[in-house]
Amino acid sequence: MSSYAFWNNKGGVGKSFLCFIAACEYARLNPEIDVIVLDLCPQANTSETLLGGQLSGGKNLRTFLAPDSTRLSIGGYLESRLNSPFSKTPDMARYAINVKDYNEKISPNLYLVCGDNLVEVLGEAIRQTAALSVPLDSWKKVTSWVKDLQDEIIESRERECVFFIDCNPSFAIYTQLAIAAADNIVIPFTADESSRRGIENIIALLYGQGDDYIASFARLSFYKRAKEEGISLPKLHTFISNRVTLFDGEPSRAHQAANKAIVETIQKLAKKHRTIFAYPRMPVAERFVDFPDFHAVSIVASLTGTPIHALKAGPKKINGERIQINPDPLKTYKDALATLMNFL
């Protein structure tokens, strides 16, 4: 079993969309494996896209969040754990629904634990439960709730499972549960200084490393507690430079300059702390993937719930507007996705 958390401490870098296209492509290429998406972001954008996009995804998602029925979502699962915080609840695997039942464009081996805005509301109750003095391992037990869900899903199936976890940018308690369940972290970013700072925060929060001043605070919180409680932390796996501005088929100089600062930040970390990387012997620069800034692809895919492999070049009519997908940019995008798949 492998699990990949898509996370950056900065919002707006495209992590939900990248999680969507990566999970869909992985499921298509590996029909013998069950791919399960865990949507730990309260906005539930990944869930809405998987369930059909703007036109039908939101409507389908609401059926799982109805208050007068079993809430088949990550929020419903976390609520059930609050009622029984230190023992597993029965039939936890039921929270993973088959996406193909709601979106025929998706491979039949892709499953989803729906995102839910309720997780934001439950956040404080989860945090307080983790802080209880009895039992002595209450923090560890609560922090392992999403890992428990993964284990239950695996036990319920005869096939190999791979998990894709969409995380909220903030390091809220539910993000901590997601991170504690992941083996690897995929970090999408845009080539700007705020993305670099977001990556620095990831390094400080999870590994207590980086700038001495910031890291000194991080060592007092999640990093320190996880180390004391024996919770395994994920490794830095892949870095996705998203929305790369191309000029004559190559990244623009402005993009290259901003991107260079981020690569250098990661390389500096690798020289001192190579063991926190999934591939410690591989040069860091070889773990970067560039995704082009091609809005038409992402717009059509998001609004219609269409995986990248199923997109065709040509004009599309979306919400009364004509959107043109040109062949060459679409191929460039598909090539970038193929590179990412080679990494996972």
| CATH class call | Alpha Beta
Instruction: Note the main sheet.
Output: 8 strands, mixed
CATH architecture: 3-Layer(aba) Sandwich
Identify the CATH homologous superfamily.
P-loop containing nucleotide triphosphate hydrolases
Helix proportion: 40-55%
Quaternary status of these chains?
single chain
Number of strand elements: 12
Rg estimate, integer Å:
20 Å
Number of contiguous helices: 14
Could you explain the architecture of this structure?
- An eight-stranded mixed beta sheet has the order 3-4-2-5-1-6-7-10, with helices on both faces. A two-stranded antiparallel ribbon has the order 8-9. Strands 11-12 form a two-stranded antiparallel ribbon.
- It has helices at residues 15-29, 45-50, 57-64, 74-83, 118-130, 138-143, 145-155, 173-181, 193-207, 212-218, 222-229, 253-272, 295-304, 327-343; strands spanning 2-6, 34-39, 97-98, 110-113, 161-166, 184-189, 235-244, 246-247, 250-251, 288-292, 314-318, 321-325.
- The radius of gyration is 20 Å and the shape is globular.
- The chain is α/β, with parallel strands linked by helices and 344 residues long.
- It has one domain: P-loop containing nucleotide triphosphate hydrolases (Rossmann fold).
- It starts with a strand and ends with a helix.
- The chain has 14 helices and twelve strands.
